[in-house]
């Protein structure tokens, strides 16, 4: 089975699907499935645009609304996860996943599905330690804090995924698993993205939660996006026992979707030839959702998941074979996901702009049906009940920060990830330091392969698509010769992390402020990303 994988889509669905059609016409290659690793931007109307955490000048309607209205239909089954630039109000309607348009399926906050026997999982959003242990309390209309916290990964999703025992074929996350850069051509990555060096050397680039899932799930493939650079790695997992067979994960980060960019990857995946062409529920995942339903939290209160520490009567919520069998019986062994897409908001009409429409909190019929079928809590219904009772989402008491800034949490906030410095750094986690000579041009496109000794097979006619080589193993000296040394540095860096955090520059430093023209600028990663996109449009 041929699977196409895309990075940050940024709403450019027409471009993405046109590229796939071009691939078919020129090379007779037609993918059976398209996966998108976040920043999909399922924007239906002007109200959705106001729920996207980007500066106002970058809020463009793009083309998703045409697929939502039925004017167009996705030519290939598309499955995606959320990123950090989404219409959060729209995706929030489907916390357990669902159709955002005909033939376009969202995996939810976290989810697992099957297609032709291939097991596909994913987790939406990005990691921020200050929101990680909170419940999903946000709902539109959002304020300056909740418009961002709405897409932050929560520990309950990671906990649910860690209950899975059966093998995973493909997994998606928006941000990279922390430390994955040690298993690829790190030297080339830093050559292309020199401003990653500090985070790589301190081992703080990427998500510690995703790294934990990588170690637990050990999928055959792991795909990510977010950083707008193509990077491949090969991670050999340690076995827990002599009887356990060795497992390895082929990791690939994708570039963003822009014209003349190498943003699509085609891989060949073994599948069940006897399986149907419908997207299916995963019985084990449904059983885990049922088992963990009592853990649903819709408050801002921070809390830890159950663990074997003497404080919890139960800590193992994995699905038993009996529980999985019950799910199959409930569905009469028909796991096909119903095509029950429903319009829940007015669609954008270019001839009748409505710039002042306020976003509203909506209960999606798909979620209502799903929860009723499996006896689950409708998170949005619970949020509305809490609001009506006067004990739901409260406003933050702290002063609202500027629009382009993310809150950084508190240095005293407890965290189960000791290497996370988002609460310690004086620099906004969404900001990165750019070399003055490189400027923003370096963010437009980069590609780092697993090894220069194993070059990929480029399309002979256009550069938007790359066919994955049979092996992504990292074998070059450049890729691996300094790994042990760098890992040692990371350990030393973690020990001195608290000390070094006080020596970092202030949040905002102008190149010519106080006459210091030689000081490097600090720019938001997201602003640089969108600036590069603007440059493409003017070319």
Note the topology.
Blueprint: E1 2-6, H1 13-27, E2 33-36, H2 46-49, H3 64-69, E3 78-80, H4 88-92, E4 98-101, E5 104-106, E6 110-115, E7 118-123, H5 129-132, H6 146-149, H7 155-161, E8 170-173, H8 186-192, H9 197-201, H10 208-217, E9 221-224, E10 230-236, E11 248-253, E12 264-268, E13 279-281, H11 283-291, H12 321-330, H13 365-374, H14 379-388, E14 431-433, E15 447-448, E16 457-458, E17 465-467, H15 477-480, H16 483-495, H17 497-501, E18 522-524, H18 525-538
Parallel strand pairs: 1-2, 2-3, 3-5, 7-8, 8-9, 9-11, 10-15, 12-17
Antiparallel strand pairs: 1-12, 4-5, 6-7, 6-13, 10-11, 14-18, 16-17
Helix pairs in contact: 11-12
Task: Summarize this structure as a short list of keywords or feature phrases.
alpha/beta; eight-stranded mixed sheet; 539 residues; 18 helices
Describe this structure in words.
The chain has 539 residues and is an alpha/beta fold. The protein has one domain. Helix content is 26%, strand content 14%. The protein has 18 helices and 18 strands. It has helices at residues 13-27, 46-49, 64-69, 88-92, 129-132, 146-149, 155-161, 186-192, 197-201, 208-217, 283-291, 321-330, 365-374, 379-388, 477-480, 483-495, 497-501, 525-538; strands at 2-6, 33-36, 78-80, 98-101, 104-106, 110-115, 118-123, 170-173, 221-224, 230-236, 248-253, 264-268, 279-281, 431-433, 447-448, 457-458, 465-467, 522-524. The strands form three sheets. Strands 4-5-3-2-1-12-17-16 form an eight-stranded mixed beta sheet. Strands 13-6-7-8-9-11-10-15 form an eight-stranded mixed beta sheet. A two-stranded antiparallel ribbon has the order 14-18. It is globular. Residues 392-415, 418-530 and 532-539 have low confidence and may be disordered. Keywords: Hydrolase, Iron, Manganese, Metal-binding, mRNA processing, Nucleus, Zinc. Residues 386-539 are annotated as: Disordered.
